[in-house]
Design a protein that fits this description.
A four-stranded mixed beta sheet has the order 2-1-3-4. The protein is about 45% helix and about 5% strand. The chain is an alpha+beta fold. Bound molecules: glutathione. Glutathione (GSH) binds near residues 50, 85, 97 and 100.
């Protein structure tokens, strides 16, 4: 299958190749000095609209939709392709150098939070929202939240890497991880056959954590793998995916810190609720200008 024999001691001789290879290194810590920008709001988010980033922006938009003014936030774009996550200011919040990272400036001293699951739990507890009180329901919610945190690396780091990003298509790892991801989709599908949301009748941080990964996968929005994995056959996952996608806060949340994909979906930074309206207006005007040019009008 392969003529590779691992050496006695692994050494970092060269980039492994593939998308994102230039940012992968076997050492932690900052590579350069760079302070992070700070805006006016209590919460400062440093992120990017990957599924892990979207969890937090959906949560913040949901909290604002519920009327929690204390959840107002500035969302700053961290360009992981350019290595922003290795700047000293970012590493001071998250020593693991991965988005999302949150700083809560409303506490004394300010509270840094990293790991998307920990950020969801922090915000749910701070605002007493999207986390059930009743012990059984709360435990169900946390079980599914931790399921997501433990499972998604097989989807992203395993399947997504080998199917979409690796420089060569290798049958062994693609088979291995496709099997695991389909098993995970089946876990969700069976559960959602008799449960409206992940923790029962209420929408919680478990849904907010799982939707940006498995909802996006089922809808063909990550790795372009919907056909390969036959995601259309997971009917309950699709029902739940579409239900969440219809929520205004989920629609807003997935646009924040987006710097890729459809231009009409991108709000690269968010500092005010009105940024969504301005963005829509700008895009409408840009589209009108483009279609004017296309039809030869000035
Ligand atoms: N377990 C972490 C994973 C975060 C993560 O993997 N972030 C990726 C983007 S989705 C990242 O920042 N990658 C940059 C890098 O690896 O250097 C979480 O859920 O917060």
């Amino acid at each position: 299958m392969s003529d590779y024999t691992p050496p006695k001691v692994w050494t970092w001789d060269s980039e492994s190749g593939g998308k994102f290879a230039n940012i992968n290194r076997p050492i932690a810590g900052a590579t350069h000095d760079k302070e992070l920008p700070v805006g006016a709001h209590p919460l400062q988010l440093y992120s990017l609209a990957t599924p892990n980033g979207v969890k937090v922006t959906v949560m913040l938009e949901e909290l604002l939709a519920l009327g929690h003014a204390g959840a107002e936030y500035d969302a700053w774009l961290i360009d992981i392709g350019a290595g922003d996550q290795f700047g000293s200011g970012f590493v001071a919040i998250n020593p693991n150098s991965k988005i999302p990272a949150l700083m809560d400036n409303s506490t004394t001293p300010p509270t840094p939070v990293f790991e998307s699951g920990a950020i969801l739990l922090y915000l749910a507890e701070k605002f007493d929202a999207f986390l059930p009180h009743e012990h059984g329901a709360r435990t169900r919610c946390l079980s599914w939240l931790f399921w997501q945190m433990g499972s998604a690396p097989y989807l992203g780091g395993g399947f997504g890497h080998f199917y979409a990003y690796a420089p060569v298509k290798l049958e062994y790892p693609i088979n291995r991880f496709a099997m695991e991801v389909k098993r995970q989709l089946d876990v969700l599908d069976r559960h959602l056959s008799d449960s409206e949301y992940m923790a029962g009748d209420d929408y919680t941080i478990a849904d907010i954590a799982i939707w940006p990964w498995y909802g996006a996968l089922a809808a063909g929005k990550v790795y372009d793998a919907a056909e390969f994995l036959d995601t259309a056959s997971y009917k309950n996952v699709l029902r739940w995916t579409n239900q969440i996608a219809a929520r205004p806060a989920a629609k807003r949340g997935r646009m924040v810190n987006r710097s890729f994909g459809e231009l009409s979906d991108q709000l690269r930074e968010r500092h005010d609720a009105r940024d969504f309206e301005t963005m829509t207006q700008d895009k409408v005007e840009a589209r009108a200008e483009r279609s004017g040019q296309d039809s030869g009008q000035s």
